[in-house]
Amino acid sequence: MKTIIHNGIIVTMNKHQDIFPDGYLIIEGTRLTEAGPKEELPYLMGQKADPESGEELKWVDARRAMVMPGMVNTHCHMSMVPFRGLGDDCKDRLRVFLLPMEEKAMDREMAVLGARYGICELLLSGVTTVMDMYYYAGHIAGVMDDMGIRGIAGETVMDQATCDAKTPEEAVSMGEEAMKRYASHSRVRACLSPHGTTTCGAQYLRKSYELDCRYNVPFSLHTAEMDYEMAYLREKYDMGAVEYLDHTGVLGPRTLIAHGIQVSAKEVELMKKRGAAAAHCIASNTKAAKGVAPVKKMLEAGVPVGLGSDGPASGNTLDLFVQMRFCANFHKNTLKDRSAFPAKDIVDMATMGGAKALGMEDEIGSLEPGKEADVVIVETDSVNMFPVYDPYAALVYSAQASNVRDVYVAGKCLVKDKELVYQDLGQVREALFEKMKKTEFGKMEGIIFTK
Ligand SMILES: [Zn+2]
After folding, report:
1. How far is the CA of 132 from the centre of ligand 1 (A)?
2. Burial tier of 25 (Cβ tally within 10 Å: 0-12, 13-18, 19+)
3. Non-local CB neighbours of 52 within 8 Å, separated by 6+ positions
4. pLDDT (tens digit, 9 = 90+) per residue, 284-336?
5. What's the gap in Å between 60 CA and the centre of ligand 1?
6. What element of type H or E holds 248?
7. Is 64 helix (H, G, I), strand (E, B) or coil?
8. Domain coordinates of the chain in residue numbers?
9. Ligand 1 center to residue 281 CA distance, Å?
């Protein structure tokens, strides 16, 4: 069967950044086989089957809608959904709320149920690929597989005991097992993700890097994010965080720096030289008053930059529409330049930039024949979407996650008319809620019990 999406504004994000105002796409199996202006389609128009091959044709009308590549969330902690909204304005929220609650309440079942909920949210907002970092990576990869999203499940490696590993050695061996299991999966991979530059020692940074490179998956860690991280590395090595990664031998084409807020101009050059990329999490960073990463310098240097939501505790939503808007607003404001970061460049970061940051640019990130059919249809019927002069500007400044109508991953329709095709969101929420009630979260009445 061929699926033909037609009548929509096709925003390809290909090399020429072609837009087909009345265009079409053809999906065959998991791939896109054609993308172009509608004039090129007449041989199939009005047909129920392909006259040449006899294959059935399924027509999807994208009238009054924009069709864009599936978005790529390059930094996420899906399983942390239960922490959303917890101690949001607390000065030291990490130590007061997150770490103690994680220690008391997080286990495999909660991580899996949280990830299920997180994936529902990602799909409903047009994210088709997610780079996740948390615990129980083998199980999270299983949830990704089951729910049809494309993703990489990172196993956190850190010096201290965590909810799934008593030692970093144990985390590495669990992660490696998941990496092996998913090494040839069509959509899902696992990787090792050291927690950060100062929370995972050099030995395990190197070990993780080595394995991630061997399995050709991203080596991603929190970098140049925290004041205490910067002070420690300056004091001990007289280095910035990126310099420290380079000094440790783990800065290379597979390295994906999450946050990268406090990165110097010299370090941007170093990232370029080594082929490293960045996951920019502007909503999380600005909410925590940590600053704005030097993304303009990174892009000018040719460093791939993708957008990331960070966890739902940090940025509150997992969608990239919020990130796109914040990215535009904060960078324009910081640079005092209204023309900086044009909408087209921001949509590029949410799609191709993310694909490049994950080393997946040959497979995803744009609507081009030969690529995987990860496609999002954004309707323009809603009150906030009229009129549309420039599709990029409409996506960055007007659109919200709730405008996402249909979502395809690897050619499979996972969201249709704003509903999940294979999941019952109510049931997914209920299962997570029941689990939360049995843990420390259940003692926080009046905070989470919103039924
Ligand atoms: Zn994070």
Report:
1. 9
2. buried
3. none
4. 899 888 889 999 999 999 999 999 999 888 888 999 999 999 999 999 999 99
5. 37
6. helix 241-248
7. coil
8. 2-69+374-420, 71-357
9. 8
Give the distance between the most distant pair of CA atoms in the chain. Answer: 71
Nearest to 370 by CA among 40, 27, 62: 27
User: What pLDDT digit, counting tens, does each position of 38-63 carry?
Assistant: 988 878 888 899 888 888 999 999 99
Q: Band of the pLDDT at 445, cuts 50, 70, 90? A: low
- The Cα 115–Cα 140 span in angstroms is 7
Q: Please report, for residues 155, 171, 195, 245, 279, the alpha-carbon distance to residue 204 in angstroms, rounded to integers and kept in the order given.
A: 13, 10, 10, 12, 21
- Pairwise CA distance, residues 161 & 168, whole Å: 8
Tell me which fold the domain 71-357 belongs to: TIM Barrel (3.20.20)
Q: Report the residue count for the chain.
A: 451
The alpha carbon of 342 and the centre of ligand 1 are apart by a number of angstroms equal to 26
Topology at the third CATH level for domain 2-69+374-420: Urease, subunit C; domain 1 (2.30.40)
Distance CA 244, CA 340 (A): 31
CA of 35 relative to ligand 1 center, distance in Å: 36
Residue 57, helix vs strand vs coil: strand
By the 10 Å C-beta count (0-12 exposed, 13-18 middle, 19+ buried), 342 is classed as middle
At 7 the three-state DSSP class reads strand
**Least reliable range by pLDDT among 93-107, 117-131, 237-251, 370-384:** 93-107
pTM > 0.85: yes or no: yes
pLDDT digits (tens, 9 = 90+) for 244-265: 999 999 999 999 999 999 999 9
Residues 171/208, Cβ–Cβ less than 8 Å: no
User: Omega before 21 cis (within 30°)?
Assistant: no
Mean pLDDT of 6-15: 97
Mean per-residue pLDDT, 145-149 = 98
